[in-house]
Amino acid sequence: MEIDLGRAKRARRAYTFDDIAVVPSRRTRNPEDVSTAWTIDAFPFEIPVLGAPMDSVVSPRTAIELGRLGGLGVLDLEGLWTRYDDPEPLLAEIATLADADATRRMQELYAEPIKPELVRDRLAEVRAAGVTVAGALTPQRTQDLYETVVAAGVDLFVIRGTTVSAEHVSKVAEPLNLKKFIYDLDVPVIVGGAATYTAALHLMRTGAAGVLVGFGGGAASTTRATLGLHAPMATAVADVAGARRDYLDESGGRYVHVIADGGVGTSGDIVKALAMGADAVMLGVALARATDAPGRGFHWGPEAHHPKLPRGRRVEVDRVGPLEQVLYGPAPVADGTANLIGALKKSMATTGYSDLKEFQRVEVVVAPYGH
Questions:
Q1: Spatial distance between the Cα atoms of 370 and 364, rounded to a whole number of angstroms
Q2: Shortest CA distance to 17 belongs to which of 326, 260, 361, 294?
């Protein structure tokens, strides 16, 4: 439904996760009978959770731990771990900075050049632990570092930016040709963010194994304030899921996974993202709340230290418990920040669905808070 904004502009109504709710059906199940497993390419996972490539969320150690717990940790290959031999003192410093000093100091810390040998060593550390290895680069850095990343034995390659298109135009530098890059690469690629049907469909046609949905919706993002960009996530996920359905027909059966990335801060958000058609979720602040997260009670993304136009900030988060407790409980609080997987299973069981693909068919209603 379109709304008149004025004589020259119309807009479509879009919905956030807070605007919708999942509706129970006539059938219920025991949570123990519910499966949260999913697979992308040749890699199976017990839970539909990817740790976001942010220094406050994923370090080599937490990538290993998340893999042990059934998920996938995605290491930021442009973060402190690939710029410094020992970034632990710097992470500790960031956690002590005054709010007024945080952006400037992070810009200084992240000005250190990325060292290809550290990219190699960090990925090798995760591989040595026997879990699935994933690393993320921005489109701007992909051409320079992808050979190092692939040689290190990465299993899943993530190209992640505020927004990534299949048709980037530049007069300054040769843009990344996603279709050719993915075709030539012998590693499955997850790419995003995208927030519309058309953008997602074009990304799927490049050969990507998965598409990240969302930008500017995370807890540490100020993209809406700085760039005016925002993706109401319930609508964005449903639109990209629609692109997946149509591409499945167009391609003769090729399934591209949809991963909600942004605005997924609680177990209720995870439930709604999957209900709208996501196959999995990429979590930032939800995992930054772990007491063993590298952010030490703070959370920030790569946008927070952009050298010219920061589009994020360092935010303090309430620490809940170790990563395992955040994912599997027991929950010490009742606000959806702990036992994320237990809550997902309970919701699936309450609505009568036994696996994630079935759960995508659950009934959803518009029920905005405050209306």
A1: 18
A2: 260
Q: Is residue 371 situated within a structural domain?
A: no
Identity of the residue numbered 270: I
Number of domains in the chain: 1
How far, in Å, CA of 238 to CA of 242, rounded? 6
> Residue 104 domain-assigned?
yes
pTM (2 d.p.) = 0.95
* Chain position carrying tokens 């058309």: 198
Contact 291, 54 (CB under 8 A): no
274: in domain: yes
* CATH at residue 317: 3.20.20.70
Dist. CA 337–CA 335, nearest whole Å: 6
Within-domain flag for 209: yes
Q: How far apart are CA 143 and CA 159, in angstroms?
A: 11
Domain range for 124: 2-366
**By the 8 A CB rule, do 273 and 240 touch?**
no
The per-residue pLDDT for range 261-303, each reduced to its tens digit, is 989 999 999 999 999 999 999 999 999 999 999 999 999 998 8
Q: DSSP assignment, residue 156?
A: E
Residues 201-234 have pLDDT tens digits of 999 999 999 999 997 557 778 888 888 888 899 9
